[in-house]
């Protein structure tokens, strides 16, 4: 026994060599595997990304395409949110509105908790939730609401949030109650029907705003680290907005520690950050989302309907040819939306029809309210009524301008190819954002224009179609001018009861579709690319994309 034990140690070097030789194939495989994992980590591989991602992490990082030049909520308007949605996302993550709106335009609780009217609808009373605090621990009171409202109203800019507050005055009627009084209404009317949408603004802390010495318009970055809601803004690093849990808010069932919102002004930079495993959610980048989803099996696309964001084909009704109402009706019957969506079922749009959504309390399917589904016979009928002579051999020439996006290219090419068979020579023109805003919209220099438009939740569309909105500061890009439409829009915005307003908007829909200024191409769907294991971004009842953060406590790992 002693001999064998001594012999083992005497021959140990040789035995070790024999042992290593015997396991060399297995050892080589292990080394190669480790090397491969490290090598692949430099490439786009979802396994490695998940391996490297801390499974215990309670941080979500969202990457989005856009730009942030200013973050002053007092200057925001609906078009700002629409053109640059990152603004609304950041505001929604760190602030709370006075109230939110459901799809019917009814107020729902936020900072305001109870809503009522007095004086026949001339005075609106909103009670403030007394259990809410700012992120620095100070209580939210009626003083904050009054101060924010008056600060917004003091800004002398036509595109600010307070530009619509001229006929509204606010008073504090208690520590947790405010009263809005309406004045200078249209003669003979008692109220403004879309009041609650007019005052859907982000409330800012009065003790913070005092620092700015009333020069609210002069600050591009008025958003401070004192906010409201489940999260608070902790830091801004470049275009990365870092939010952490607001410990002064009720977070009993909140599973996120940090929410990092990163804004990239270049698609390639966003793509690179994603490939490095830095991004959990991708937003506002439909084509990139589609590309990435096909490459990474551990991510999926989640879509939510945005019923108030629509793709429109604008007719320039000031154009000599397109001033012809019968021609516009004929062209409206020529868009075969069923065929378009069948051929492009991957697109983030769905069919829509008319200026007011069919689920709205103001919608009315009157026989005289045209529903423009593709109809060759009706196209021929209204073509004849137009008095214009054109055919395949002698076509009518029109130009369609659009921002260069994959979606717009599909739509423009589809229209050009399909209309060609009906005697329309549609030339398509790609334009830059600078040309769109500086020339086409300012000077109304186009025949037809593909453009996304944000509609209000309330059926009021005064700003989009009223004659007074035709100049270069207004949103009536089609140049639509018709006395009956103006009258119905004025009635709809000034009447109080929904029964009265519905009658006005029924007349509006009939007048509108008998001289259509646009073709409704589609209603927006909002896609998000979300990492597996993150839930709560799906099946949302939202009006606009930014509202996905209103109830961020439902986002779970």
Q: Can you describe this structure?
A:
This protein has 557 residues and is of the alpha+beta class. 33% of the residues lie in helices and 21% in strands. It contains 18 helices and 17 strands. Strands 1, 8, 9, 10, 11, 12, 13, 14, 15, 16 and 17 form an eleven-stranded mixed beta sheet that branches. Strand 14 (396-403), helix 14 and strand 15 (424-431) form a beta-alpha-beta unit. Residues 1-14, 16-20 and 34-55 have low confidence and may be disordered.
By helix and strand content, what is the structural category? alpha+beta
Rough shape? globular
Give the number of helices. 18
Rg over C-alpha atoms, rounded to the nearest angstrom: 29 Å
| Number of beta-strand segments | 17
Q: Could you describe the largest sheet, including whether it forms a barrel?
A: 11 strands, mixed
The low-confidence parts are: 1-14, 16-20, 34-55
Quote the beta fraction.
Answer: 15-25%
Distance between the first and last residues' Cα: 61 Å
Mean pLDDT: 85
Q: Percent of residues in helical segments?
A: 25-40%
């Amino acid at each position: 026994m002693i001999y064998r034990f001594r012999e083992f140690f005497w021959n140990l070097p040789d035995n070790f060599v024999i042992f290593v030789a015997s396991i060399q194939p297995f050892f080589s495989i292990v080394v190669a595997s480790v090397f491969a994992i490290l090598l692949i980590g430099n490439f786009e591989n979802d396994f490695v990304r998940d391996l490297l991602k801390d499974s215990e992490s309670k941080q979500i990082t969202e990457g989005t395409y856009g730009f942030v030049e200013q973050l002053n909520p007092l200057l925001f308007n609906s078009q700002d949110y629409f053109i640059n949605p990152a603004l609304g996302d950041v505001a929604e993550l760190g602030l709370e509105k006075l109230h939110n709106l459901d799809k019917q335009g009814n107020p729902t609780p936020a900072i305001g908790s109870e809503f009522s009217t007095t004086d026949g609808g001339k005075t609106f009373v909103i009670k403030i939730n007394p259990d809410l605090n700012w992120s620095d621990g100070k209580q939210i009171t009626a003083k904050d609401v009054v101060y924010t409202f008056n600060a917004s109203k003091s800004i002398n800019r036509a595109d600010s949030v307070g530009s619509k507050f001229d006929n509204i005055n606010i008073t504090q009627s208690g520590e947790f109650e405010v009263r809005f009084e309406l004045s200078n209404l249209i003669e003979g009317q008692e109220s403004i029907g879309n009041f609650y949408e007019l005052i859907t603004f982000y409330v800012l802390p009065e003790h913070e705003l005092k620092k700015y010495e009333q020069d609210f318009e002069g600050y591009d970055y008025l958003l401070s680290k004192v906010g409201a809601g489940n999260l608070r803004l902790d830091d801004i690093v470049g275009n990365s907005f870092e939010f952490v849990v607001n410990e002064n808010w009720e977070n009993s069932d909140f599973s996120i520690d940090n929410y990092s919102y990163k804004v990239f002004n270049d698609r390639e930079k966003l793509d690179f950050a994603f490939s490095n495993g830095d991004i959990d959610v991708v937003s506002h980048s439909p084509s990139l989302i589609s590309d990435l989803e096909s490459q990474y099996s551990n991510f999926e696309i989640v879509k939510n309907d945005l019923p108030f964001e629509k793709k429109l084909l604008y007719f320039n009704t000031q154009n000599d040819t397109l001033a012809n109402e019968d021609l516009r009706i004929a062209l409206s019957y020529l868009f075969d939306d069923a065929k378009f969506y069948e051929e492009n079922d991957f697109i983030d749009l769905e069919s829509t029809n008319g200026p007011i959504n069919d689920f709205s309390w103001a919608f009315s399917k009157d026989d005289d309210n045209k529903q423009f589904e593709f109809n060759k016979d009706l196209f021929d009928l209204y073509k004849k009524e137009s008095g214009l002579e054109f055919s395949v051999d002698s076509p009518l020439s029109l130009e369609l301008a659009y921002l260069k996006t994959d979606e717009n290219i599909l739509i423009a090419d589809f229209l050009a190819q399909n209309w060609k068979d009906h005697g329309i020579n549609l030339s398509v023109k790609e334009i830059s954002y600078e040309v769109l805003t500086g020339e086409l919209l300012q000077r109304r220099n186009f025949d037809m224009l593909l453009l996304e438009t944000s509609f209000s939740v309330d059926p009021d569309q005064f700003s989009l179609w009223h004659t007074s909105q035709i100049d270069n500061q207004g949103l009536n890009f089609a140049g639509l001018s018709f006395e009956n439409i103006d009258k119905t829009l004025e009635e709809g915005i000034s009447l109080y009861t929904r029964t009265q307003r519905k009658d006005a908007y029924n007349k509006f829909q009939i007048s509108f579709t008998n001289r259509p200024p646009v073709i409704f191409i589609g209603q927006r769907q909002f896609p998000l690319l979300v990492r597996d294991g993150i839930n709560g971004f799906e099946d949302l009842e939202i009006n606009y994309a930014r509202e996905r953060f209103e109830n961020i406590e439902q986002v779970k790992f």
